[in-house]
């Protein structure tokens, strides 16, 4: 990624330092300026200030020269110290500082040399000022010419200094570029380092997991070795038994004729017995299947009977509901009779109330009942036109009413009590029949299931026992 960058720049820097040393020696002779390097900061910044006195221009007129001479003599308008150029170069930062080694030492040496040159130039300028104040005109002109020559030389030196500064800027840019590239490279290396650390941690975790797996596999290997030992012991035992059986087989082969006859007789007997048992079992299975079919039919018949009885129960419940309605109607009728007897109403109202209630609530099976009060009322109504017999008739009606009310109440109470007894008996019979039907069906179902399950289990057990006997016999043979 950063293979095209060359960080070995010490040889080029040494050559540049040699050239700068030669230029500094030239500046010692001709530079009257002040190069003030006040600081070489902690944030790796280098600042250079160049000061020099204003030189007289070559194209000045004689009047201007005279004015300058007069100003020099009077020491009133001495040329001021001006700042021609100030170059500032900064590289690096407080966080990412680049250790330049020899370059930093050379810059410190340059600073000491430049400070010495500035001191010498200041002393030289002060001496020239003192001399020019007390010199004659010819010497002044000569000094002005020298001053102009020194100004030209200073301009040339400034140009060369600017070129050097530009070269330094280029070098600093290159160094900055290298620094940024190195910083990016460092960041990339840090990222790679972090990734490598993560990979190392993952590898460590994998190693730990593999070690755990190794331990588990070692345990399994130990268990397998123990199992192999046990299997070898069992094999040894089985080999011994096989050898014993082979010896027995050899002995049996010696007595082959007798053993064959004995085995044939046993086989014939076992085959006959097996056939007989199979036939008996088949007959039992057929009988059980027939019994199952008959029991299935019986279960269907019982289900039909149960459904019919349930229908009867529903019809009886409906009849019971009707009877309860009739009983409630009769109770209401009794209440109305009692209310009518208590109140002192007319005979017409008393006679009409029970008859209307009876005809409304009684069904088709009930018979209309006329009380003797109603008959007497009809008789009295026929003879109601005679005004003379009204009082006698009313007294008779009262007497009949008092005489017959007790009879009517007794009759109605007896009818109601008989109906209530009939209803209670009917409800008891219904409950008994339903309980008997449910109990019979449940018991029959349970008994049938128990019998069928027990018979099937017996057949299966017999069949399995016979098969086991047959297998044992074949193995023995």
Structural write-up:
The protein is mainly α and 477 residues long. The chain is 81% helix and 5% strand. The protein contains eight helices and three strands. Strands 1-2-3 form a three-stranded antiparallel beta sheet. Helix 1 (10-30) runs parallel beside helix 3 (102-133), helix 5 runs antiparallel to helix 6 and helix 5 runs antiparallel to helix 8. It is elongated, with a radius of gyration of 72 Å. The protein starts with 9 loop residues before the first helix and ends with a helix. Residues 1-11, 31-104, 124-135 and 344-391 have low confidence and may be disordered.
Morphology call: elongated
Residues in β-strands, percent: under 5%
Low-confidence stretches: 1-11, 31-104, 124-135, 344-391
The beta-strand count equals 3
Rounded mean pLDDT score: 65
Largest sheet: 3 strands, antiparallel
Query: What spatial order of strands do you see in the largest sheet?
Result: 1-2-3
Structural class per helix/strand content?
mainly alpha
Helix content: over 70%
Q: Nearest-angstrom radius of gyration?
A: 72 Å
Taking the alpha carbons of the first and last residues, their distance comes to 88 Å
Which H/E pattern describes the elements?
HEEHEHHHHHH
Please tally the helical runs, counting DSSP H or I stretches of 4 or more residues.
8
Identify the notable features of this structure and list them briefly.
single chain, 477 residues, mainly alpha, 3-stranded antiparallel β-sheet, 8 helices, 5% strand
